[in-house]
Amino acid sequence: MNPDDVWLSTDELAARLKIPAKTLAVWASAGRGPRYARIGRYRRYRLSDLLEWEQDQLDKTGRPEADEPTDRAQHPRRRPPTKQHRSRQQEH
């Protein structure tokens, strides 16, 4: 079957990507996410467009460059909030 002939509903795409359907709605309103067509009041996603978008996502996140450090010690985690910061959060 030709990927141009296959259209996915929002629920089918959400299941494929393992994300909430609401996320797709947010992406669509922000002009992000996979390309879609509006058919009546429904968004439909063509499989060929989806496959291209998935490849773009993979290419963007790809593998780290060879010269980038991969050791965790060189990538410290965010520090926990200070006592002063925590007390300010509790006030809100």
List its salient traits.
92 residues; 3-stranded antiparallel β-sheet; 46% helix; mainly alpha
Protein described:
With 92 residues, this protein is mainly alpha-helical. Helix content is 46%, strand content 11%. It has four helices and three strands; from the N terminus they run E-H-H-E-E-H-H. The chain has helices spanning 10-17, 21-30, 47-61, 83-91; strands at 7-8, 37-39, 42-46. It has a three-stranded antiparallel β-sheet. The longest helix has 15 residues, at 47-61. The termini are far apart.
How do the strands and helices of this protein lay out in sequence?
Blueprint: E1 7-8, H1 10-17, H2 21-30, E2 37-39, E3 42-46, H3 47-61, H4 83-91
Antiparallel strand pairs: 1-3, 2-3
What gyration radius follows from the Cα positions, in whole Å?
20 Å
> How much of the residues is beta strand, in percent?
5-15%
Main β sheet profile: 3 strands, antiparallel
Number of strands: 3
Pick out the low-confidence regions: none
Question: N-to-C terminal Cα separation, in Å?
Answer: 56 Å
Q: Indicate the mean pLDDT.
A: 83
Order of neighbouring strands in the sheet with most strands: 1-3-2
SS field, number of helical segments: 4
Instruction: Name the helix and strand elements from N-terminus to C-terminus, one letter apiece.
Output: EHHEEHH
